[in-house]
Design a protein that fits this description.
With 416 residues, the protein is α/β, with parallel strands linked by helices. It contains 10 helices and 14 strands. Strand 2, helix 4 and strand 3 form a beta-alpha-beta unit. Helix 6 packs across helix 7. The chain is elongated and about 110 Å long. It starts with a helix and ends in a 5-residue tail after the last strand.
């Protein structure tokens, strides 16, 4: 091959090389993007749909709009929105359902207990109805109070006396015996037993409970079940149906009424007399750190003297009207114990400046009756009906010499 041909082939190859480079460069520029566009990190790894700034319509919006849309579309922003919205809703629910009702209730109680807001009549100012065969108030013998002298010969020597106050038994004798054994009750050592009422009815052995209470020289208050059965017993005697084996027209009675009539017949004269002597209110007396201790079956109206309390309501109340102070058997409304505690706490604050021991002028109420609320121990009210007869517990409030209080319970079978 001549040198001329060799040079011509070299030029042809050179032209082909340059032409290939130009074609490749053209294809690169047409179908590829700059290398920086291929860089990805944790923020930009999502679909381009999340980033309006990279859309083809970016030029149609101002830059601040593009930035706002970019922030709103970011997944982290949405997570923050969900978290803060959830916290807001929880806070609103807590305020609306818990805090605000409690503040409203507190304001209503303070307003109800303020003597300057009273208008017209007020419960306790009315004359009480008269009831036959019923004792409103009885004072507990001081010899049963914890911490008193053992006897006259050993005056000054402190006893180991305890008050054992038991909630609604409702005829559950086995559970009562178990509870007394658990607290190591011994009236020979100075212990004294007190019942908050409703010793009888519903349970399997009402007569046995009364016999055990009498055997232990216990004190008691009259509950609504004692009241109903004793009144029924008196009515049956007066209408000469007491000795009948079966009630005339018994189909007219409910099962509950038939059971109560059977219990009224079952009680002996001695048992009925002992129950009838139970007062509506037992004034226990002064106990260290508790002030004046009172036992009532259902409750007391705050600010009303014991002598002016309505006996029927003391045996049945659960709630109280804040405007009139009239009690009610209903479960709906303000619990009387809440209003009573508020009344006593306000009174304690007013006595602190003038009394060295303001608690001595205050009152603590121990009560039963409200099994639905069950055990409810507050500063000035002690609710100890824990629903034994329905399979709950039987509760005892034990008060030691120095006023120290403890709760002892046993489980019960369901007799309902």
């Amino acid at each position: 091959m001549s040198s001329h041909d060799t040079y011509r082939d070299h030029d042809r190859n050179a032209d082909s090389f340059h032409h290939g480079r130009q074609s490749s460069s053209s294809r690169f520029s047409r179908f590829s993007r700059p290398l920086i566009d291929s860089v990805r990190n944790g923020w930009s790894s999502q679909s381009p749909a999340y980033y309006p700034l990279t859309s083809a319509n970016d030029d149609k919006h101002p830059r601040w709009v593009q930035m706002a849309l970019s922030v709103v579309a970011a997944p982290r922003f949405r997570r923050y929105v969900i978290v803060y919205l959830t916290l807001f809703l929880l806070g609103w629910a807590g305020w609306a359902l818990v805090i605000s009702p409690q503040l409203d209730e507190r304001a209503a109680m303070i307003r109800a207990l303020d003597p300057h807001t009273r208008k017209g009549g007020r419960f306790g100012a009315n004359s009480l109805p008269s009831f036959e065969d019923l004792t409103l108030i009885k004072n507990l013998d001081p010899k049963f109070l914890p911490g008193g002298p053992v006897n006259v010969e050993n005056i000054g020597e402190e006893s180991r006396r305890r008050l054992v106050i038991v909630g609604d038994v409702h005829g559950c004798k086995d559970e009562l015996s178990e509870l007394l054994e658990k607290v190591s009750f011994s009236n020979k050592d100075g212990d004294h037993l007190v019942f908050t009422g409703d010793l009888i009815n519903k349970g399997p052995d009402s007569a046995g409970v009364v016999d055990l209470a009498r055997e232990l020289s216990a004190s008691c208050v009259r509950g609504n079940h004692e009241d109903r059965v004793l009144l029924l017993r008196k009515e049956m005697i007066e209408t000469k149906t007491f000795l009948e084996d079966q009630d005339v027209g018994k189909d007219l009675y409910t099962k509950k009424e038939l059971e109560e009539r059977a219990l009224a017949r079952l009680l002996s004269e001695e048992q009925a007399q002992w129950l009838g002597e139970c007062p509506v209110i037992l004034n226990v007396g002064q106990i260290s750190s508790m002030g004046q201790v009172v036992v009532a079956h259902a409750g007391l109206v705050p600010g009303v003297e014991l002598e002016k309390q309505d006996p029927s309501l003391v045996m049945t109340m659960r709630t109280i009207d804040v405007d009139t102070h009239v009690p009610s058997e209903s479960h709906e409304g303000l619990k009387w114990a809440k209003l009573f505690n508020k009344h006593q706490s306000i009174l304690e604050k007013s006595l602190r400046s003038s009394k060295e021991d303001p608690r001595s002028d205050l009152m603590t109420v121990v009560y039963g009756h409200d099994a639905k609320t069950s055990l409810k121990i507050r500063t000035y009210t002690k609710g100890i009906d824990s629903g034994c007869v329905k399979g709950g517990k039987l509760t005892a409030l034990v008060i030691d010499d120095d006023g120290k209080q403890s709760i002892v319970q046993v489980r019960c079978r369901d007799y309902s």
